[in-house]
Amino acid sequence: MEKSDELISVIIPVYNVEAYLERCIESIRAQSYLNLDIILVDDGSTDKCGEICDAFAKEDNRIQVFHKKNGGLSDARNFGICHAKGEYIVFLDSDDFVLKDYIGHLYLLIKHFGSDIAVSCAKKVYSIENNPNNEEFYLEKSLVFSSEEALEDMLYRENIPIYACAKMYKRFLFLDVQFPKGELFEDISTTYRLFHCARSVVFNPISDYYYVQRQASIVNSGYSSAKMVQIYNTEKIVEFAKQYYPNIIDAAKSKCFITALNYYRTIPAGKIFTKDRQYTKEVIKKYRAAVFADKRNKKLIRALAFFSFFSLEPLRLCGKAYQYLLEKEIIKARKPI
Fold it and tell me: What is the pTM of this model?
């Protein structure tokens, strides 16, 4: 792909991932779309990440490096947005990597369909893959959604994932939206508001973003009560839908239900997390009838809602078994669940 006049900013927050960082940065440097503003935000790393970032900046004049006091992923992303020069913004986590046409595909989607956000698929990687498989990109497989349709699709977990990566955004969307500083799972409280601001969202099923599942990452680390914010924020989405999109309230309830159910299986036994377990049970009970009655839901989700009327313990064990099979790559989940 030839160099375009339009500059695209790629924001990469960096924190203590020296084993993964070089592959991440090299995957962006190797993009077929050349006109990039690559922003590396060293968020107070205590390993060699800062040195790695500086070394790459000396090799590539497209790279800007900022060293700052640790403020968390949201703060680093917001910092990157403030320093971005492009009219389009892409986020890449520093332990992930992308295929060479990733940026070009997202840009083509936005330009061809006139959308404000372009979305592709992220492939979860549980083991190191040195030679990822390239997929053919077919423009005709794209789906264009209105804001409401995109939100509904995301909340039903049909095509569009809720995380901030594997997406390209027009910069104006961040004029009134920021990532919440100091909050885990910041994507949940941000992505739906960005979709709300967008005139349309285009999705293509190509998997060209590789989402590395590290045990030390926030998502895969041990349970803490701070992670309950994910349930609280999905409940906020239900209230948001009531106010702005009453036609998709059932989709929001579905997202809240499955989020609570997923957390129920991870909360450890014992008195220390009794309140978390009880709150999670209350959320499951609050929405299970609506989820079971909603024919738009996946059959699996409706079945889980049905069995939750009888006992949650078997569902906890099934959830753990399902996660184990995913991690061992015995089964694969192509779409969000």
Answer: 0.90
